[in-house]
Amino acid sequence: MENIAKNIEKDLDEVRSLEDLERVRITYLGRKSFLSENLRLLGKMTPEERKEQGPKLQAIKEHITRTLDEKKYALEQTSFDWKKDALDISLPGKKSPIGHFHPITQTIREIEDIFISMGFDIADGPEIENEFYNFDALNFPKNHPARDMQDAYWLSEKNEKGEKLLPRTHTSSVQVRYMQENTPPFRIIIPGKIFRHEPTDASHEHTFHQFEALVVGDDVNVAHFKYIAQEFFSSFFDTAIEIRLRPSFFPFTEPSFEFDISCAVCEGKGCSVCKRTGWIEVGGAGMVNQEVFVLAGYKENFYRGFAWGFGVERLAMMKYKIDDIRLFHSGDLRFIRQF
Ligand code: DAH
Hints:
Layout (H helix, E strand, L loop, with lengths): L1 H12 L4 H12 L4 H8 L5 H32 L3 H4 L17 H15 L3 E2 L5 E3 H4 L30 E3 L5 H9 L4 E10 L11 E11 L4 H16 L5 E8 L2 E10 L16 E10 L1 H6 L8 E8 H9 L12 H4 L3
Parallel strand pairs: 1-4
Antiparallel strand pairs: 2-3, 4-5, 5-9, 6-7, 7-8, 8-9
Helix pairs in contact: 1-4, 2-4, 6-11
3,4-dihydroxyphenylalanine binds next to strand 7, strand 8 and strand 9.
């Protein structure tokens, strides 16, 4: 062991290049080296001998390997070849592409900023939801056709409580989740991804986004709702936006409305985006049905609130003049990079 250590030291002193080093490596670790020969002998030894000799040979091998590695490192540090290794600082640099957030993420952040400035909190909930929060808690009667208003994908597996599961069909699924954890007054928006079992075309997707609003207090009424919505849209589109409510039906609101805004593209004059009507439907809204408060565990007729669920893609398409909703999920970088 000592001999080998001394010899390798001497031999390495004379090493000037990686080629020299390779020769030394072969001498000490190669197939014909002293070490390899002894390692081969191990097989012919009695178990007792092997137990004694094995670790010793292993230690020698480790010592040699480490010494060679150290020398290699030292050589690499000092062997600088001006022709090969010099850095030409006049060469143009390689530009790393800089990424950015997806236009939908950007739009959601813009929406959040506006609501935060109006004192809202941001809430969220799971994308895979159980039947209760997506339907029952929102006062959808069992087996009621209103459940088909939103064609759901259903998962084949149930959760550990035996509840049916689905990718949520709307952000309204977070309403009762939030109310179970919080006491009014509060005002929140819930931006999120939702899923519908629907054929796709330029204005329909199976996967898109909504932002739900839920404002609950002692004396919340439709005037508050109209005011806040108008403030939001005018700020989002940076121009005065008019809003229009049309009577509608949702089991979780009473009264319920379809919610339109004046077309931000043509300012209500009529264009292809608003199909010449001057108005664009952005979602549903209404005063929270007292049944929903009860299902959330609140006292009946104690609070009043409004809620809406508006489509994010719609707004982004209008603001950025995008004519096909499928572009958002296309993964097409030529589209994404424009934002
Ligand atoms: N969840 C409804 C949908 O996706 C939209 C909606 C309507 C949400 C009325 C609301 C509401 O909060 O009050 O079709």
